[in-house]
Amino acid sequence: MADIDLRLKVNGKLQHVQAEPARTLLAILRENLGLTGTKDGCSSGDCGACVVLMDGRVVNSCMVLAPQAEGAEVTTVEGLAGNGELHPLQRAFGETWAFQCGFCTPGMLISCHALLLSNDNPSRDEILGAIAGNFCRCTGYQGVVNAVERAAAELRAARAGREVRNG
C-alpha cells in the first residue's frame, strides 16, 4: 500500500510525515519524529504507556492508525515542559517519587495532565479514575496521587496569582 502524506501538529509544531496507512501514531512519534518519551508497552491499548493527548482527548497512540491522526493536534510528554521549565506536574512527579523505573511515567503524566486541564482540584478517586488505564508494576500509585494533588495546588495558586495581578 502506498504511503500517505500525513500532516499533524505535535507539541505545537506542524509536522509532515510520509507513512504507511497501517502505521500507528506511536510508531510515527517515535520513529519518524524522534519523540521517544512515549513508550510501547503492549501494542494492544491495555497498558497506557503510549498515552498522548489527541485533539484534547487521552488516546493510546498504539491504537491510532496514521489516517486517523491526519490534521490532529497531539501532545506528548515532551510537550508538557515549556521555556526550559518542567511542567508543575513533571516536577511534582519527581518531588513525590511518583515513579520508579519510569517506563509508565510518560503515559501517567499525560493522563494526569488531561485530568488537570478539566479539573483543577481533583479528588483521590478522580485521580485514580484518570489513571485507571495506566498500569504500573513499581509504585502502588500513592506517589502519583500525591504528585497530582501537589501539582493541582501549585497550578491553582499560580492561576490565583495571575487573577490578582490582572484583577
Walk me through the structure.
The chain has 167 residues and is of the alpha+beta class. It has helices spanning 25-32, 66-69, 88-95, 105-118, 124-130, 142-166; strands at 4-10, 13-19, 51-54, 57-60, 73-75. The chain has a 5-stranded mixed β-sheet with strand order 2-1-5-3-4, sandwiched between helices. Helix 3 runs antiparallel to helix 6 (142-166). The protein is globular. The mean pLDDT is 95.
What secondary-structure arrangement, pairings included, does this model have?
Elements: E1 4-10, E2 13-19, H1 25-32, E3 51-54, E4 57-60, H2 66-69, E5 73-75, H3 88-95, H4 105-118, H5 124-130, H6 142-166
Parallel strand pairs: 1-5
Antiparallel strand pairs: 1-2, 3-4, 3-5
Helix pairs in contact: 3-6
Secondary structural class = alpha+beta
How many helices does DSSP assign?
6
Rg over CA atoms, rounded to whole Å, is: 16 Å
Q: Which term fits the overall shape?
A: globular
Termini separation: 57 Å
- Note poorly predicted spans: none
Largest sheet: 5 strands, mixed
Tally of strands: 5
Strand content: 5-15%
Percent in helix: 25-40%
- The strand line-up of the biggest sheet is 2-1-5-3-4
Overall mean confidence score, pLDDT: 95
Order of helices and strands: EEHEEHEHHHH
